[in-house]
Structures are given as C-alpha cells and as structure tokens.
Amino acid sequence: MKRLPFSAWHFVLAPLALLFALPLVWLLVSSVMSNAEINRFPPALWPHGINLGGYRYVLGNALFPRWFLNSFIVSAVAVTANLVLGSLGGYAFARIRFAGSKIVLGLMLATMVIPFQLTMIPTFLVMKHLGLIDTLGALIVPSLVTPLSVFLFRQFFVSLPRELEEAAWIDGCGRLRILISIVLPLARPALSTVAVLTFLATWNDLTWPLIAINSDSTYTLQLGLTTFQGQHHTQWAAVMAGNVITVLPVLLGFLLAQKAFIRSLASTGLKG
Amino acid sequence: MASVVGTFTVDPRSKAAKRRARGEGATGWAFVSPSVVIILGLSVVPVLWSLLLSFQVNDLVSPSEWVGLANYKALLKDPAFGSAVSHTLIYTVLYVPLSVVAGLAIAIALDRKIAFIGLYRTLVFVPFVVSAAAQGVLFSFVLDPEFGVANSVLHKLGLPAQGFFSDPGQALYLLVAISLWSGTGFCVIVYLAGLQGVSSELVEAARIDGAGRWGVLRHVTLPALTPVTIFLVLFQTINALQVFDLVFVTTKGGPLGSTTVIVYFIWEKAFKTFTAGYSAAAAYTLAVALLVVGVALQIYRRRVAAR
C-alpha cells in the first residue's frame, strides 16, 4: 500500500474521534477499578491495577449469566425467524403472483409507520391472554418477523435477474426448492442486513421487556442492567462490569462485521 | 425477454403450466401467511384496540367503561401532559438539527483518503450500536455528583461541582448531549454513503467555473444531498419524539418532572398508575403528531424531487 501524505485534517479528526471514544474507554477502565478508587473524593481518573472484583461480583452474585442467556435466546430466535419468515414472504411478494398480494404488501408496509407506543398496551393485553407475560415468549413472538425484514428481502429479490430461476422452474423445481437452493445462496447481502438489524433491535431493546417481564430470572440484559444499577448504587465497578458484559456482544459483532453493520444501517437511510 | 410480471414465461397452453399457475396462489399465500398473521395481527388489531381504549376507563384488569371523549378532554387540561409535550419539543428541537448538521460536517471531514480514516469513522460511529440502557447506566456513573468522573475533572480544573441529573435545570440538556454522542454517528454514515453519490463531474465542473470550497458545498454538494437530509430529519424527529429508554434509565422523568417526555408519560399512565385508557389517548395524540410531521416531510420531499 502506498503511504498517504500527512494531512492537517488529523488535528481535527483525531480529537473528534477521541471525544466519541472516550466514554466507552471510561466504561472499560472503570469496570476494572476497585471500589476504594471510585469511592474516594475526588475519584481516581486511572486505576492502579486491574481489579476484577466487579466482574467476579456480577458473574457470581448477580443473575447476569442468566440475563445474558435470556437475551441470547431472544435475539437468536428473532434473527433466525426473521431470516426464514422474511425471506419466504419477501420471495412470494417479489416473484409469485397471487390474489391480494399487492394489498397485503401495502398494508404490511403501512404498519411500519405505526409508533410502538400506540400498540404497546393492546400488545401487552394480547400477550396476557396468550399467557405469555413474564416469559421469554412475550419477547419473542412480537419480534418473529418485522415488515422491514420482509421489505428488505423483497427489494433484494426483485433486483435479482429472473433468468437464474427459470431453468430450475422449467425443470419442475418447486418454489421452496428454488428459494433455498438458487435464490438464498445469492442473497448474502440481504441476509446479513436483516440479521444485523434484527440483532441490534432485539438485543438493545428495553421498553418492551420492561413492560412484559416481571420476574428477575426472566430479565434480559438491558432490563437486568437497569435494575441492577438501581439496587447497587454504590458498587459502580460492578455496575460497569455488568455494563461491559451487556455492550460487548454488540461491540464485538460490530467490530468483526463492520462493513455489514454500516451497509445495513446506511441502506435503511438511502432506500427509506 | 418478454417475461410477464410475477410469473415465468412458460408456454401457457401446456396443461402442466396451467396446473402450476393455479397452485401458485396457494404457494404464495403459504409463504406470506406467517408474516401476515404476525405483523398485521400485532399492528392492525392493537391500533384499533388502542383507539377503543382511548374512549374508555381501563386499569388493565377489570372490565372497562365507556367514557367518550373524557380522556382527551382531561389530557388537554392536564398540566403534566402539557409539560411532557414541551420537554419533548425542547429535546427534539435541539437534538434533530444539531445531530443532522454535526453529522454532515463530520461526514464531510471524514470523506477523504488519509491515514487512520477507517479508525476515525469506526470511533465516531461505534456509540450508535450501544443500547440506550447501557448509555444511560454509563452516564449515570460519569455524571454522578459524588463518584462521577465529570465532577472529578471539574475539581481538577478548579471549577465548582455540578448537580447534573439531580439539577432540574440541567437534566434535559444532558439527555440531549448524550443522545448527540450516540446518535450523530448514524447521520455521519448515512451522509457518507450519500456523499459517494454526489457526481464528481459536477464538482469538477463547478471548480473549473471558479467555485471555491464553500461555493461547491453550497451549490453542488448540499442540493445533491437534499433527499438524504430530508430522510435524516424525518428519521431523527420520529426517534426524538419517541425518546424513552434513556430517560427511564437516567432520570425516571425527574428531577421534579423536568425530563418527563411524552412516551414516559404514556408508559407511566399505562403501567404504573394503571390508567390505560388515559394513556391510550396520549399515545393517539402523539401518533397524530408523528403522522402530521411525516406527511409534511413527504410532501416536501416530493416537491424537491419534482423540481
């Protein structure tokens, strides 16, 4: 790679980038501080050594491992279901002619503009009637498939050349077979976009778990962290250790698949 | 190729083709029905149900009672709702323009090929993927009046300690600042993607015609980015009007109600004081406001596109 010439822009961009990074650096640093360092005045700005007491407390005395598992289950089921149901629906809307398809698609897209506050009370009542309140099911059912997932798959499939599927169709392949063995292997960008958006939405959600869950053993990480902070107001190192555990999967996912994350999020903007 | 929309070009006279075309309808419905049931079932039904609720007194347990427009009338007279609306508007009026303008400025600064540019972009964007709950918990600590690093730094600089979230005059503005820290990155990446679409020939032509850096920005880049800007204003406004998680984690609407925003009000009425009908009326009021903003911006977008 050719070396780039030094630019004066570094004097603007480096401090700016640092400003955005600093709170997260502090999150990591304070999670390995001792309570003594935090609780004196003025509090220390840098730890003297790495103290894992916060992590030990959070993993041993609190329900964080359980909450992590709950969040993981909800996100994993939601991502899988959105990929399966979204691609099935998106494919049908893109390729199959059937009575009512345009009206149903239009209705589904229209629901994207409904704010969540408008539906949350009846959704709570529906989940209560189904006996799902205070179970992970209450968190999973509403996020099984979103109109955005169906729409993103449909847009992608419409852009694929039809000829790819025609040979298989003439050979007598069914639609499901064509979708699985011809279309989906080409749909990696759409699959990763839907996976990223669904994961971010379910992992980071607080509002709905707050409404639907009461028992602490059924909390998700976001709800658990929030409650934990309220109950351990003086154990900041432990709270920050819990916070790191809550944020880490998203941060790691983002750093490992940065291109997919950025493309997914930018695409909601440019096509929206 | 003369393909028909929605089906393949198979000889329509063959019997097999006809049979398959008939089967297509069933296949189509089989593919979409899980999505249709879940999405419409959990949106259309609740939207109508909410409308009914807003004309009722309901505590989420006992049978509800029809009260007509009483909830809406009470809402208009409720000073708590009035201040929730004004807090939400202050938050929105500060957050939306600041995040969009800062997003554009930072995107332009980041739109160049220099060393470390990938790292700079990553760092500016990374707070966006952090959940509002985690942001709230982190900043509750940073801004803790006793143990927080913010007062510690002020102390080192010889400045007086601040109350931060415990000060009714500061709390709402701190929420705006935290949202800017995490939300500006989204504007940056959308603008960065938009900037790749600005025709370099147009920029080149303007340069040759003697336009300076500002001239190019004002007369070429900004007009080309107008659709992106309208989208971002719409997206950020909708998010700002619905802010909840961050408020719940940091201030719970306090101190002295100074950060009670509309959605916090709605949540509190439904799930804390169990006045679900009243809450639904507030939710409908917010939804109508969102609809008006959305439609106005759509009309504006069409006009810009037609020009």
From TrEMBL, chain A:
The residues that cross the membrane are 67-91, 103-124, 136-157, 178-201, 236-257
GO cellular component, as recorded: plasma membrane
Q: Which GO terms describe its biological process?
A: transmembrane transport
UniProt KW keywords: Cell membrane, Membrane, Transmembrane, Transmembrane helix, Transport
PANTHER family from the UniProt entry = ABC TRANSPORTER PERMEASE PROTEIN MG189-RELATED (PTHR43744:SF12), ABC TRANSPORTER PERMEASE PROTEIN MG189-RELATED-RELATED (PTHR43744)
Q: Per UniProt, what is one Pfam family of this protein?
A: BPD_transp_1
Where is the ABC transmembrane type-1 domain positioned along the sequence? 68-257
Does the UniProt entry include the keyword Transport? yes
What protein does this entry describe? Carbohydrate ABC transporter membrane protein 2 (CUT1 family)
Q: Which organism is it from?
A: Kribbella rubisoli
- Which InterPro entries does the entry mention? MetI-like, MetI-like_sf
Highest taxon listed in the record's lineage? Bacteria
From TrEMBL, chain B:
InterPro entries (alphabetical): MetI-like, MetI-like_sf, UgpAE/MalFG_permease
Q: Which GO terms describe its cellular component?
A: plasma membrane
Name where it's found. Answer: Cell membrane
Per UniProt, what is the membrane topology? Multi-pass membrane protein
> Keywords assigned by UniProt?
Cell membrane, Membrane, Sugar transport, Transmembrane, Transmembrane helix, Transport
Q: Which residues cross the membrane?
A: 28-52, 89-110, 122-143, 171-195, 216-238, 281-300
Pfam families given in the database record: BPD_transp_1 (PF00528)
**UniProt keyword annotation of Transmembrane present:** yes
Q: Which PROSITE patterns match?
A: ABC_TM1
- Major location, coarse class? membrane
Domain named ABC transmembrane type-1: residues: 85-299
What Gene Ontology biological process does one annotation of this record name?
transmembrane transport
What family name appears in the similarity comment?
Answer: Belongs to the binding-protein-dependent transport system permease family.
Question: This chain belongs to which protein, by name?
Answer: Multiple sugar transport system permease protein
Q: Which organism is it from?
A: Kribbella rubisoli
Its organism's taxonomic lineage begins at: Bacteria, Bacillati, Actinomycetota, Actinomycetes, Propionibacteriales
